[in-house]
């Protein structure tokens, strides 16, 4: 009877530690998606002066 009670106590103690804390649902952090809505620009403000500079260089080189 003593061996049976010792086994019952050992099983009871090990079973209670196996379920300690219970179930906790996992937390999923969702990061918001950031979309860049600005249109892509080609920076036309530099194209015209660059073409004028090339024209001046070509005019000077042809003389």
Automatic annotation (TrEMBL):
The chain crosses the membrane at residues 44-61. It comes from the Bacteria. The keyword Transmembrane applies. Keywords: Membrane, Signal, Transmembrane, Transmembrane helix. Residues 1-20 form the signal peptide. This is Ferrochelatase. The lineage of its organism: Bacteria, Pseudomonadati, Pseudomonadota, Alphaproteobacteria, Rhodobacterales.
